[in-house]
Design brief:
It contains 4 helices and no strands. By secondary structure, it is mainly alpha-helical. It has one domain (about 15-84). The radius of gyration is 13 Å and the shape is globular.
């Protein structure tokens, strides 16, 4: 069963909203980054897994949630915000 594909608070879905709201909106951008899916995934994975001690089932659930994120939407939003 997949998460709902209906929008959430102006985002594609709940997972995308939560990653943007809880992790990326508080990220300290310096303006020199090249925003890509890989770059955003690295930021998020470091925030979620680095120094968390997460193992086993917790990691599995976190990865399932992150697989629902619309990374293309996030790249578009943060690329546009970087140039403003």
């Amino acid at each position: 069963m997949e998460m709902s594909t209906q929008g959430y608070n102006g985002w594609t879905n709940y997972a995308t909203f939560r990653v943007a709201n809880d992790l990326l909106n508080s990220w300290q951008w310096d303006g020199s980054e090249t925003i890509s899916e890989e770059y955003l995934r690295d930021i998020v994975q470091n925030c979620v897994f680095e120094n968390s001690g997460a193992v086993g089932l917790i990691v599995d659930y976190a990865n399932l949630f992150l697989n629902e994120v619309d990374w293309d939407e996030l790249v578009e939003v943060y690329t546009v915000n970087q140039t403003v």
